[in-house]
Batch of 3 targets.
Target 1
Amino acid sequence: MRRELYTAGATTAEVDDLLLIADSLRLLRHSNSVVERKNRSRRGIKMIVVPAAYVLIGIMVSTFIAVIAQVASPDSWLFPVQKASDNVAVMLHPQYREVIMMRRADQVRELAVNESSARAQLGALTSYMEVADEYKNQPHADYAAFRYCESQLSQAAKTATPQVRQAINRSLYSLDTT
């Protein structure tokens, strides 16, 4: 390279300076490739860690919402989440249906005592009946649980509007006769 620089007309001082610059460029190119390799490995890690972090956050938020929904009232926007998480729990542990049935009876009573809308009370009663119908067909059905639910629904009927009271009485009668 020195000869080529002299041939091009460079002086000795210029050739020395240009050769120093050329050596620096060679070192710079080598250090850039090391930095580039590090950057590539960091990008690879980010491509795994960032989506995994989003998934983990999503699972945590979903779990938190499902836990909060367990105390939701049937007239709450979280009630569908409660029903969905209850369905998952029943798939994993079928005997949990008894707990859900008793909770639905409590919810009917709670809505009646709090004088919630007839629509909310009837919706909760419908949800109770769905679970109760499924539960009574189980071989392990506990009739003490039905008596508890009957007690809760009877209390609800005392404070409910005539329309809701009539629906509760029909529900109690349909469970007794089957």
Target 2
Amino acid sequence: MVTESVFFIFGLVLKIFTVWFFLTALMFWKKPTPYPRRQPQTRFCCLIAARNEERVIGELVQSLQAQDYPRELYEICVIPNNCTDDTEGAARLARARILNCDLPVRYKGDALRQALARLAGESFDAFCVFDADNLVSPDYLSRMNDAFLAGARVTKARLTTRNPYTSWVSGCYTLYFAIFDCFFNRSRSHLGLSAKLVGTGFCVHRDVLQKLGGWRTESIAEDAEFAAELSLSGERVWWVPEAVTYDEAPQRFGLSLTQRRRWISGIMTVAGLKSGKLLKSLFSGPAYGPTAASGLALSPVERRARIRQTLRRVDSLMFLGSPFAQALSVVPVIGFLTCQVIKGGSAFLAGGLLSLLLPIGAGLLAGYVGLAGCGLVLAWASGHSCHHMVSGILGFPLFMASWLPLAVLSLFHKTTEWKVIAHGVSAKRAGSIYE
């Protein structure tokens, strides 16, 4: 019979993920050093894959056209796909270049693959990827230029919402993005690890795409899959916090659940595709390009670089495994209670189980207060109005708790179909540069 000790050990194994993310977050207090300002040199191509985005595509194109970057050094390309509205017409009206897809498009990665293959022969130095509902800070391309000229080959902008005050759900997204900026990206930028590459606001140098053989993602989570490919190739994602992308967050909790379940399910799918290769790469060196014959032959600088490269792969593995760890975290609790019922029978049900209700209730209350307090601090630290985000701060514990059932559900049933989330419906959009 399975004993309580087995569930205890299983719980300890899962804590490896908690320990890793705690340790890698310890540098959050250190403010990132801005990249040196440089004259515009990088030639960018701004790519926007758009499906039924007629209401918002023009705003993003105009936001990109308003960059404080020489207009001759960047181009804006929209990739309409599977549209039943006039996304293409709205993009043309905004004076964007249109790249139509000749092959079927299931996911965003399919559209990017076709567009990048078509642009491969043109004289772009780097490609920036955006979602159609985004806005960008006026100095976005200038700050990305600084990073590329400082040595970056893949960059990720700071992400926040453009509608933090329209509902408690959009407010929760604002706080959630602030958590990643503070405890994930900021810390990793100091440790030499990669920033979290979500599917918008990132740039990749053409040399990296050539090294990888083009854009090759196949899953619904093209961002997580591409990040895993970068880790395998030894590339680091540099964080550029001064460049900001504003994303329109869902306003309704039901839409939020649909979107976040797609995220979790997609990461689980990518874990199945890439975890084996990442594990193998930990013991066989970089998956692409030349490697040293022996670690002993490396110089101290090369050895440190190799260690950081290995840590980035470990970090990628931990990120891909985290939804599984979250879903399986209920197993030790259920297992312990089951063992107690089997051992104590009706006596446990009558007394022991009831005696657990008080500490469980106290723990839930403490957790709620703690998360709401964390939300308050995050709202203040990220420069948002705490007064206007009261509902989001109070709802933040529910938002965070809802990740657990979504992970459990995704463990048994993967999302394989991309569902439309309507954009451009906010009564008021608010971002620090657009208020």
Target 3
Amino acid sequence: MRRVKFMMLLPIGTLLALVTPVAAAHATTGTAAAAQPAAFTCYPNTPSAFTVSNSTLVNNQTTTTIADGTPIPGGFVAQSDPPNFPSKTTGSDVASLTNETTGHTIIHNEGGTSWFTFDPAPKLPGALATGTFVSTGSTSELFGPKSLAALEAAGIHEPAVVLVNGLLVMHFAVDQDGPFVTSFSLNGTQQDGCALLAGS
């Protein structure tokens, strides 16, 4: 299996158009980071739709590979699906999210720790890989169409952009089209980033 490369919103600093987590460039070392589209659409297929772009203004994050069996918050343990190996990212970054229609920008300070772990064998038929993204602290997650559709199918309703704080757990899958989030669970607080960027 080829190495999975994806940048998640999973944090902007990271998600999974995973997890399209986590968005701008949270690149991992020797593991996968969730790949995301260059832009995201808030309120798609409505008169209120607008495109959101994101960038990392400051990146003080460090990513390291961790050993299989290492405990991860939320009751998970690190696992490998070679050549994809579990990782841990620490440090902070500053993300910028912009409503491309109005120019309205949100600056989001992100910090905490995040982990990627992989299922030893993909759990979704046809997937190249599946796994779990866990983060603590503050992150921004951006979801592309495939992630939003998968979440909706699971009965989970999230905006295309969400700012979270707390223990976040997202399961993801990677297929020929790239990574996408299949579940979203948060023990903490969240804000609707689309509403904030729309100015409401």
